[in-house]
Write a structure and sequence with these properties.
Number of helices: 13
Structural class: mainly alpha
Number of domains: 1
Radius of gyration: 28 Å
Order of helices and strands: HHHHHEEHHHHHHHH
Strand order of the largest sheet: 1-2
Largest sheet: 2 strands, antiparallel
Low-confidence stretches: 126-131
Shape: elongated
Mean pLDDT: 85
Number of strands: 2
Distance between the termini: 56 Å
Amino acid sequence: MGLFEPRQKTKSVVSWLALTWLPLALLSILTGTAWGNKVRIPLLYDLSIYGRFFLALPLLITAEILIDRFVRQAVSTLNSAGIIGRDDLPSYHATLKRIARLRDSGLIELLLALLACVPYFLFVADYEWVSNPISTWHGTTSVGLSPAGWWFIFVASPFLRFLMLRWLWRCVLWSYLLGSISRLNLNLLPTHPDRLGGLSFLLAAQEQFGVLGAALGSVIAGQFANEIVHFGETLKAIKAPTGVFISLSVLIILLPLTFFSPRLFEARRDGLVRYSSVARSVTTAFDVKWARRVGSPPESMIGTQDPSSLIDYISDYDVIRETRVIPISRRAVLYVASLATAPFAVVWLLTSPLDKVIEEILKRLL
């Protein structure tokens, strides 16, 4: 639809803020609800707005800089590294073209935009439609929604939902590509040092989607911050939903990599069988030559390649044995979890007294 300029992300962020937050600010200023005591929660004191439009929105736009670079590198590696069998390359390229058409389809983006405008909040998020029991920049229960509240409902929120739906669609396409690749004839190397048969570049690409967890977490964390600051909620009360969100973020983002688990299992199993068969011959020859032959002086082993070759072969076997069937590393889990946790950590810092924060840090250090 031409809504994004790939090489001008800063301009895109500013443009989208001008369409979403700026009108809210101007309308709130005109009605006297941007700050002051006219309402209990003025716009500039609504922490959920900062989470939505100053954190989530820029992250959703600039995520393309990070994610696209790794995705393109992954596709390039699949094209050039010989991982996909030659007979399956035409099928792979056809899938790439089909996904590229779906990704760049203006019609699909239009459908996503229409879906973002559906007033789903009438059913699941009435706080966006009916003003809160207390007075806010949204409006009041007696007067109804303010002009800024109407803009938030019919313009600002749909724009943000559109970005979310657009990324959801792209994640679906990427997962579909991974699933399609996993069903092809793959040349996985069980002795590859990455312990993933040579697929670590896919893990590196997949974990970059963690920035989307940070974006969605910013929206939720903003709501939690409001509940703590303005409604008296406690940090303890949000621990459970925060933990659930972080766990789901890690699971959903990294789960598509498990499409390759059957292929990795096969590569590991076949590698162990083949290398075990050869290992007996190698180790038997070494044992007969250096351990069983009578009169063979130990010093004669120095300078020969036999011990080194045996150790190299044992190392290869250990690599096969350590190859992970589930292509997910602890580092990837921690990376995605940390991104999803970051917005909630900000809430903790903002809503915790400084002396208590220092006390908690010292308690753990000492």
